[in-house]
Design goal:
By secondary structure, this protein is mainly beta. It has one domain: 7 Propeller (Methylamine Dehydrogenase, Chain H). Helices cover about 5% and strands about 45% of the residues. The protein has a 4-stranded antiparallel β-sheet, with no helix packed on it. It has a 4-stranded antiparallel β-sheet with strand order 2-3-4-5, with no helix packed on it. It has a 4-stranded antiparallel β-sheet with strand order 6-7-8-9, with no helix packed on it.
């Protein structure tokens, strides 16, 4: 009798631990969404293919959809929203563009354009509503970086001799807008992939023991808990179900790395830190969750998503992906 009672308690506890689920809010065939910015529990912006931008002011229940005039063939792979009126969106290239709106998305102005051959933007990150960074693939063997200090109204390129060098075949993935993250109030970190996969932190370049050695492999996303604890996810996007070396964890800013005992169950394009020891990660074959800082992940959905983001001011977590799919963690 005691054994049966304890087994029942264990089952109930297990169900409670794995109670998270993803609620699908909307789907739109033939639309790929990779940019996602969650201002608070109600306001979120998303961006994607065919010059598409979406905005919700009620937590994803209703949407305003926009196709930016003159950009209907552009891929908007990342978006940064400050409130329901102001946002910045990034078009990968060539040419590469950054656009800005101050009227809720009705009108957009070009605040950055680069026609350099090979130009390809990957991700943006903002420390606050004024200071931000954008990174791009290497041009002449050096990663592209630009900074803004006025809310994205103007952008300044970092001089070439101050840019990190890239190895042959090394680049970044514009998979979810999360391969660059703020580390503290002034610094950012970013990850690369391809033939070589590295963590760039301050003036250091640290090889990441994640799947690498081919154009389709490497780190796709990094999430930061504090100045020392990061989780990096990726893998091989040509093999969405492969779990080998698709996730690595560091608790000493990259000096040492550990693999999860139970890894996310496939290639992952995004990871997001939630709170305490909880993180969420997603990819084309589903969504995984951990409550022990990445030691073990468990599946909470088989629906595919490209990006997952937590509200900057709030607790809500949203996801976006292929077929115009938008979901919410519940």
């Amino acid at each position: 009798m005691r054994y049966s009672f304890m087994l029942l308690l264990a089952m109930l506890f297990s169900n409670k631990i794995q109670s998270q689920q993803i609620k699908i809010l909307i789907t739109q065939p033939n639309l790929s969404l990779r940019g996602l910015s969650v201002v608070n529990d109600n306001i979120l912006w998303i961006s994607g293919s065919a010059g598409t931008i979406g905005k919700s002011r009620d937590g994803g229940n209703t949407w305003k959809w926009i196709t930016v005039k003159g950009f209907d063939k552009n891929e908007f792979r990342d978006i940064e929203a400050f409130d329901e009126m102001e946002a910045i969106v990034m078009s990968i290239g060539e040419p590469a563009y950054i656009l800005r709106t101050v009227d809720g998305g009705d009108n957009w102005s070009i605040v950055f354009k680069d026609t350099t051959k090979g130009m390809f933007l990957d991700a943006m990150e903002f420390w606050n509503d004024q200071s931000g960074i954008v990174i791009g693939d290497p041009v002449k063997n050096r990663f592209f970086i630009a900074r803004t200090f006025d809310g994205g109204r103007t952008w300044m390129k970092i001089p070439s001799n101050n840019l990190p060098e890239a190895k042959t075949g090394e680049a970044c993935f514009a998979a979810s807008g999360t391969n660059v993250r703020k580390l503290n109030r002034e610094e950012a970190v970013f990850v690369s992939g391809g033939m070589s996969s590295n963590l760039f932190i301050r003036n250091q370049k640290i090889n990441i023991p994640i799947s690498q050695g081919a154009e389709s492999k490497g780190a796709n996303s990094i999430a930061v808990k504090n100045k020392n604890t990061f989780i990096v996810v990726g893998g091989d996007f040509n093999y969405k179900d492969t779990v080998e070396k698709n996730c690595v964890i560091t608790s000493d800013a990259g000096k040492t790395w550990q693999y999860p005992e139970i890894a996310p169950r496939g290639y992952r394009s995004c990871i997001e830190y939630i709170h305490k020891k909880e993180w969420i990660t997603c990819g084309p074959n589903g969504v995984d969750y951990t409550k022990n800082d990445g030691k073990t992940f468990y599946s909470i959905s088989s629906e595919g998503f490209h990006v997952c983001r937590k509200a900057k001011k709030g607790k809500a977590v949203f996801l976006a992906g292929s077929d115009g799919r938008v979901g919410k963690l519940e």
